[in-house]
Design goal:
By secondary structure, this protein is an alpha/beta fold. It is 47% helix and 20% strand. It contains 14 helices and twelve strands. The chain has a six-stranded parallel beta sheet with strand order 2-1-3-4-5-11, sandwiched between helices.
Amino acid sequence: MDKKYTIKDIAQMAGVSKGTVDRVLHNRGKVSPAALEKINEVLNVIDYEPNLIARNLKSTKVYRICVLLPDPVFDPYWLPCVNGIQDAIKEFKAYNVNIEIHYFNPESTKSFLKTNEAIVAQSPDAVLLTPLFHKETLEIIKQYDELGIMVNTFNNQVESSSIKSFVGQDLYKSGRVAASLMNLILPKGQIAIIHVDESLKNAVHMQEKERGFRSYFDEKNLSDFSLATLKLKYSNIETKLPAFINENPELSGIFITTSKAYQIASTLSNITDEKIVLIGYDLIDKNVSFLNQGLIHFLIHQNQKRQAYLGVSTLVEHFLFRKDIPETILLPIDIINVENASFYIS
């Protein structure tokens, strides 16, 4: 077992007083260059590591971390994220860290920006956010950078040198996984890529999923398939989707790039008896219900609870224990069907 060195041991080895060693280890008070050199030589020899946990318990510094999160009231996809953040809060409740969630309406850029203003007013040490709106996210990240506020992102990735870390999936590859699943089920036919309830031009996560999906068919030269993109709002699904199906009688598969597969499945169940393959995202209750009924064939699980937990905990451990924050933390792309869904549902 490695020897646990005390301040007294280090002082004796360096030939200085315990008080001098204490000042060096805790970075307080003046120490002569000669004494500092002797102590550092001893610390290098014994490979000294400070007890950061004990040090933090004595510290009066309170770190503030704010999470900018879409409100689950508007979209249940985000509820597991709240649970993941609450897990982190419980885990680190004994330490000097304050973790707060600030909710915004995921359908409103104004709400996103207004909630950000409330966060900036608190002068946090770090912000964890999901960049739902690409253009506005880049604006506020620039603002955080100018204020010296650290930024982590999760769920959706944006390119910015000011972002410390990203936690989530490779969305391009998840689109390719969805395409390969579709190709396993269907020998040919028309496939619709459906985006629901978000502005595609400002939603990089949907763009990346579609790009990955299309790249699979392009690279495999699958000429027996044709792909079309359809953008829908919740308010017009019941009118626009039936019209699209009537105009495209060869439609045999649908890839939904968000957690709204249940909305498509519900509408299809009311308008056609044709078996159309549905592949979407996320284990929200309504999606699982249609999965169990056989109306949704596969769901890609993004594990948003784990994403949120890791986004918060890496920040906390960086501040408290001086741990490095990985530039990217990629989670597995889990494929869910009716046979294994129960394993993933707590």
